Amino acid sequence: MKTPVKVDFHMHTTVSDGTDTPEEILNRVRQAGISMFSVTDHDALKGCYAIRNILTETDPAFITGVEFSCKDEKGKYHILGYGYDPDAKSMRDVVEKGHLFRINKVRARLDYLRTEFGFAFSEEDIRKLLALDNPGKPHIGNMMVKYSYAETKEIAITHYINGIHFRSQYVRPEEAIAGILGGGGIPVLAHPCYGSGDQLIVGDELDERVKRLTDFGLKGLEGFYSGFTKKLREQVIAIADRYRLFVTAGSDYHGSNKMVALGDTGLDDVPVIPDGLRRFIEVFAEV
What we know:
- Helix content is about 45%, strand content about 15%.
- The chain has ten helices and seven strands.
- Helix 9 links the parallel strand 6 and strand 7 (about 245-250).
């Protein structure tokens, strides 16, 4: 297989917080001329199953993906997993744990909105919310708009939902990395320069964070990302080279939920594919 020059390894469907169904996102990938891609829904594998079931022989190369939301004493991390076996017990264990924690956060946010602002929702709507594969703040925000508690989803999140402060439960990064490795996959740190909220992680702090995660088994960094400047991208790639890590490229496409275009990775700006990205592509390219 010829080495793809247009790839996107970071996108979300309706299984998590995207607005495109797996079928719709596959059509968009086809139309965008992307040669190799991955769907990385948050804490979920369902989107990858759906994509695999509708792929044809002429479709772009597909890599199973996932994005785990993690946290420990040092901060928050988003750990991407690629090329794993979705039937692996280690993967399912992490997904189930992450989903349980997510449901607990949704319930806590609903309780907060009720006690602080008197925002009540029908039992049917709450049941539908909790039955989603990946319920979160955007879904609660949309429900608030439906009930006229907020004019927009963004206002609902910023003015109301984000006001709650509680000790959240998170999958630890070493748990996510171990789960991905146990499923035969490659664990990668998503958008490495971005931490919690507006936190920017660069320099020695970034290097120390990456070194710590490689001790857990991290194998790659997302060096090309829609939100990166050239300077941030070069810094991440330099660290990846230092630790002999893979480099990946992702847009973090969410459909209409985020102003990011499919395939917008920054890869078009470089004349030569970095060694780490070339090696990552070769792992999954057909011989």
